[in-house]
Please model this.
Amino acid sequence: MTDPLGRPPVRLLVPAALGTLLLLLPLVTLVAGTPWSLLGEQLASPELREAMWLSVLTATVAMTICLVLGLPLAWVLARVEFPGRGVVRTLVTVPLVLPPVVAGVALASAFGRTGFIGEPLRELTGFSLPYTTAGVVLAHTFVALPFVVLSIEGALRTARREYDAAAATLGATRWLTFRAVTVPLAMPGILAGIMLGWARSIGEFGATITFAGNYPGTTQTMPTLIYVSINSEPEAARSLSLVLLVFSIVVLVALRDRWLVAR
Amino acid sequence: MRMRPLIAVSVLTLLPLTSCSSDDDEKQLTVLAAASLTGTFETLASTFEDEHDGVDVKFNFGSSTTLAEQGVDGAPGDVLATADEKSMTIAEDGDALAADRMQFATNELVLVVPADNPAKITGFDDLADTDWVRCADDVPCGRLALSLLEENKVTAEPRSLEVDVKSVLAKITSGEADAGFVYASDAVAAGDDVLVFDVPGAAEQLNPYFIAPLDQNDSGDLAQEWVDFVSSDEGRKILDDAGFGKP
Model:
């Protein structure tokens, strides 16, 4: 194990180790503190299964929307030259740094019962998004879309433009090139983006509870269930947290084995 | 075990409060108080500071349960005020109190609707088929709402179970819900943004507020003086104005 560049300096290794420890310790203590004997009983509770199902359902629907909207958006940002592209890219990523509760308030101002679009929609159709599963999907989409767009755009940038150019010289239209060349080449990145977005969506809490509310069966997802049970049933909250942790690890392992390492 | 890291962080954030004033003449009183007392206790503090020269009252507002647990853990603080009996009992059982607890106020559950009353609600019976919200079952304001709904045989289902009373109020003031259950003091704080309706039977199920000096009190007599002030006529008037009921 001799690195031709020399030994890694301790002054870099120590903070690196501390950083790892900081990230891992709370997760280890979370797992260690899980009330294993009660776990089976808690996982079987109808409330939990309902919330888990709703989380998986809304995250999956949200990712379908993210793919339909995010792939074209990422392609435009990566492949089309237009004035203000940098500005658009920055604006699209704002929800990444927005506190989720603020995202919820922003969503309510647009799609809430008294919102810019929400109010006329309610007057015309009688339908409004808050307190519905569709509202949860919207919140998830809003929060996860930037993740998806950024990952896919990165993948499209690394898939070299020259292949697009080669397809064009062979007479392919831009749409055919997109379908037959660009997307297949960027597929690992696209899937990774969708998986990351899915994981983000599963963990979404602030925007969901602020915009869509919290009611079992319609809007109560795993994280909101954890939050409302922390005070009354700390053990149940812990078991739920463990389930979420397993979800995230499965996603990361899937990403690592299939795509991240292969690159 | 679960609360330890949280408590450690909370304690660390409180440390500067205790250390900064020790070298000058100013005396400091630190009050751990339930979040629903925020505006009211701040008003009380300015009067108290006027009457006690060189005294600076600091607050740590939060969930009653969390504050009581912090009190038991020895968090810096001279007085504890909780919005329920359960939390004060936690402090009592943990030997964190320096004197007997005292009930100093009550809060009554009321029904509030947005000022323009979009669902034309005139009382407790109009809830069916409206978008109304309450606190979740496990939160004190939710337990109280649940019990009053049962007592009045109301079967209408809420659209959302909010994590605390402030979230319920926010849904009403923003017009995102037609009606919601909050405490009378919250309704007073919301002013003209809401219309208030009494809940039948609420006057018999009041939410009690307790106060007591803490064992780790290092403000000397100030802690007891604060407790006395809160229950004095002057303090009583401020609590009344804020919508709190008599103990």
Summary: Residues 15-24 of chain B have pLDDT under 50 and may be disordered.
